[in-house]
Design brief:
The chain is mostly helical and 152 residues long. It has helices at 5-20, 28-35, 39-51, 76-82, 109-124, 128-132; strands at 55-58, 64-67, 137-138, 143-144. The relative contact order is 0.15.
């Protein structure tokens, strides 16, 4: 399974933005400094996030970025899709065509394909607000908390 830096960094930056932009727009330089992410890399990610309608830019003095919609309406899966970071768990580039010679599927294809679906469903059920409020999981205790609408 591979989760690349685009997805991880985009989520980190968006959580930072959600936390810091409650009063005023936030500059990418501030996010880059706090999260230790390259400013040029953030600029590339935010161009994609803006195109996807997840952030909006504010020009002029005191400008920067704000969330385009509230943190409780911004799903982690939306961020991942916006920066073109699908979580691939099969080795098949094309799920309808197999990864083996002759287009056959490997013996464990369905297992990894289903895991990919579960990961997507999990990320679709978690919002920026869930991450900010630490409602994802109690890491030390293993205690699970409610996940947005998925907990109902």
């Amino acid at each position: 399974m591979k989760l690349g830096t685009k997805g991880r960094y985009a989520v980190m930056a968006m959580v930072d933005l959600a936390q810091a932009s409650k009063k005023a727009p936030v500059t990418l330089g501030d996010i880059a400094s706090r999260q230790e992410i390259s400013l040029s890399y953030l600029e590339q990610l935010f161009a994609k996030l803006r195109k996807a309608g997840l952030v909006k830019s504010v020009r002029g003095p005191g400008g920067g970025y704000k969330l385009a919609r509230s943190a409780d309406q911004t799903r982690i899966s939306d961020i991942m899709v916006a920066v073109e970071e699908p979580v691939e768990v099969t080795r098949c580039g094309n799920a309808s065509r197999g990864c083996l010679e002759g287009g056959r599927r490997c013996i464990t294809h369905d297992l990894w394909d289903e895991l990919g679906r579960h990961i997507h469903l999990f990320l679709n059920g978690v919002t920026l607000e869930d991450v900010l409020q630490r409602r994802v999981m109690g890491a030390a205790s293993g205690q699970h908390f409610a996940l947005g609408a998925a907990a109902e």
